[in-house]
Write a structure and sequence with these properties.
The complex is a heterodimer. Chain A is mainly alpha-helical. Chain A is 72% helix and 5% strand. Chain A contains eleven helices and four strands; from the N terminus they run ααααββββααααααα. In chain A, the strands form two sheets. A two-stranded antiparallel ribbon of chain A has the order 1-4. Chain A has a two-stranded antiparallel sheet with strand order 2-3. In chain A, a hairpin with a 2-residue loop joins strand 2 and strand 3. In chain A, helix 1 runs parallel beside helix 5, helix 1 crosses helix 9 and helix 2 packs across helix 9. The radius of gyration of chain A is 20 Å and the shape is globular. By secondary structure, chain B is of the alpha/beta class. Chain B has two domains: 162 residues, P-loop containing nucleotide triphosphate hydrolases (Rossmann fold), CATH 3.40.50.300; 64 residues, no CATH class. Helices cover 35% and strands 27% of the residues of chain B. In chain B, the strands form two sheets. A six-stranded mixed β-sheet of chain B has the order 6-7-8-3-9-10, with helices on both faces. In chain B, strands 2-1-4-5 form a four-stranded antiparallel β-sheet, with helices on one face. In chain B, helix 2 runs parallel beside helix 5 and helix 5 runs parallel beside helix 6. The chains are: A mainly alpha, B alpha/beta. Chains A and B meet through helix 6 and helix 7 of A and helix 2 of B.
């Protein structure tokens, strides 16, 4: 057995983790950046996306592609609307005070989690992927007539996993276009830079906040819909994405979207590789250690700007 | 020049910042095409008055009216739409955004048409040259031009200028001054907070002296130009 092909496989697995993590963390980063609040319930919005995906696919039946496509549209939209409602009924009332928002979102976390337990139940349920062709991974070796390809035994990924990576890339590109090129993105960035001046120039800051909170939750839900055919929907599945998103957002620099994506790739890939060769627990330990180092030596994060 | 009615009327406003009451029973008015200057020591409540007009600080009592319409009960983001351009102290640009994007935010506030932007670029040609540059990379004077231009993009009936010449070199001060005079000529009401005596004396149609959040005295600009002694009395210059 050679090492290199297995490293390649582990990297592919890590890339799937990185893709899903990037979407989830960008959602968290967006909310923190624009609204300056920490959303502890972010992982539950992720979980809700997965559970709603199962529910939509289950209700529709028929071809798995149909159910999945519907879930891909409906679940993030519903989660986004739930988040908007939470923003308008809870966060707006406490005036987005940073400390009180943490406590309030912890409350939202438990409400979502327990309501899911009471309705959906404690089971882990799979959603069938729309397509799932096994793809053997080719590798090369130096044979008698130069380089030749071969297929190491048992080394394979699926077409769906590759599609997840591609889809996450497309969504991240859309988020970037939204922030950098669209009018609503301009208003969001202005609100992020100076809330008071945004108000003084007629930007409806409360509406922007509701949109951003919904968008952040919707991104987490979308990430969950993408991963649920691989990892199943369960009412406690929000913990890991929350922890990893926080790690990524801190390493990348609070509120910096490019930093978040770079850190997600870093953490996702190392998580995948270390999980394959050692253990998933070691991967989490190292990621947490990295956060500690970043906080000590570069508190603003790799890409963050030090604020006065 | 239209002199009937007032652009801005403050009717006995009281404003608190946290628990401290900063502005007490302040009443003043600005007519179209008039430059009214708020004068007073640091902490007299000038900037607080500006923020209260913009709806950024809540009134304890009193009313703010713009063109006869009460604006002090509007949500803060609706106040500028009524027709107020605000040039805050310290400029407060959207630093990471480009010059063009800063101006676009001004344009979006009231849905001004493209002609307004051309007019603003006409007043500040230098901003056109730097339109794709990030606002934070501009020089101090250019930043002040941008802050003023951003406010003018709303086609305001009232312009609030909070220490617009602070820390600027003389040529920039003159450029800002000329624009303010031009706006007066177009019938815009201007409420100006200014520390520099020569700027006040050369611009103001009326001067309101503030101390401890109250308006002590209102003087005609022309009278003040003839006799500087009230300034010395109030500011101890």
């Amino acid at each position: 057995m050679e090492f290199a092909p297995y490293l390649f496989l582990a990297t592919l697995e890590g890339a799937v983790t990185a893709a899903v993590l990037a979407l989830t963390a960008v959602g968290l980063s967006l909310v923190f950046g624009v609204m300056r609040v920490v959303n502890v319930a972010h992982g539950e919005f992720f979980m809700l996306g997965a559970v709603l995906a199962w529910w939509v696919a289950h209700m529709l039946g028929g071809h798995p592609g149909l159910g999945f496509a519907a879930a891909l549209l409906i679940a993030p939209l519903m989660v986004g609307l739930i988040a908007v409602a939470a923003d308008m009924t809870v966060l707006k009332r406490i005036e987005y005070d940073p400390e009180r928002t943490i406590v309030a979102t912890i409350g939202i976390l438990y409400i979502i989690q327990q309501v899911t337990l009471m309705t959906y139940g404690p089971d882990a349920r799979p959603v069938e992927p729309p397509f799932n062709t096994r793809l053997a991974i080719p590798w090369f070796r130096f044979g008698e007539d130069g380089v030749e390809l071969y297929w190491p035994w048992g080394l394979a990924t699926t077409s769906y996993k590759l599609a997840v990576i591609g889809a996450a890339g497309v969504v991240l590109l859309c988020v970037w276009l939204l922030m950098a090129r669209s009018r609503i993105g301009l208003l969001m960035r202005a609100t992020q830079l100076d809330r008071e001046m945004a108000l003084a120039f007629a930007i409806p800051v409360e509406r922007i906040y509701a949109i951003v909170f919904g968008l952040g939750a919707g991104l987490a839900a979308l990430a969950a819909v993408l991963i649920v055919p691989i990892s199943q929907a369960h009412y406690l599945m929000g913990g890991d994405p929350l922890l990893l998103s926080f790690i990524v957002v801190i390493i990348g620099g609070l509120g910096s979207l490019p930093g978040t994506v770079v850190a997600a790739i870093l953490i996702g890939l190392s998580d995948g590789i270390i999980s394959v060769f050692f253990s998933p627990t070691l991967a989490k330990i190292l990621a947490t250690l990295l956060v500690a180092l970043v906080l000590v030596f570069r508190p603003q994060g790799l890409f963050g700007v030090r604020r006065a | 020049m239209r002199r009937d009615g007032q652009v801005l009327e403050l009717d006995a406003i009281n404003v608190a910042y946290g628990k401290a009451r900063i502005v007490r029973d302040l009443s003043l008015c600005v007519a179209p095409g008039e430059i009214v200057c708020l004068l007073g020591r640091n902490g007299a409540g000038k900037t607080t008055t500006m923020k209260a007009i913009m709806g950024l600080l809540p009134l304890l009592s009193g009313q703010v009216r713009l063109g006869g319409r009460t604006i002090s009960d509007l949500a803060p983001h609706r106040v500028p739409r009524a027709g107020i351009g605000y040039v805050p102290q310290g400029r407060r640009l959207f630093g990471e955004l480009t010059v063009a994007q800063n101006l676009e935010i001004g344009m979006l506030a009231r849905g001004s048409d493209a002609r307004v932007l051309e007019d603003v670029f006409g007043l500040f040609p230098r901003l056109r040259e730097r339109r794709d540059q990030r606002a934070e990379t501009l020089s101090g004077g250019e930043q002040q031009m941008l802050a003023t231009a951003r406010a003018l993009c709303l086609e305001p009936d009232l312009l609030l200028l909070d220490e617009p010449t602070e820390g600027l070199q003389p040529s920039m001060i003159e450029a800002i001054r000329q624009v303010v005079i031009l706006m007066r000529g177009r019938g815009v009401g201007v409420l100006l907070v200014e520390q520099r005596m020569d700027a006040v004396l050369s611009l103001a149609d009326r001067v309101v002296f503030m101390e401890n959040g109250r308006a002590l005295e209102t003087l005609d600009g022309a009278d003040l130009r003839a006799d500087h002694s009230p300034i010395e009395r109030y500011l101890g210059v």
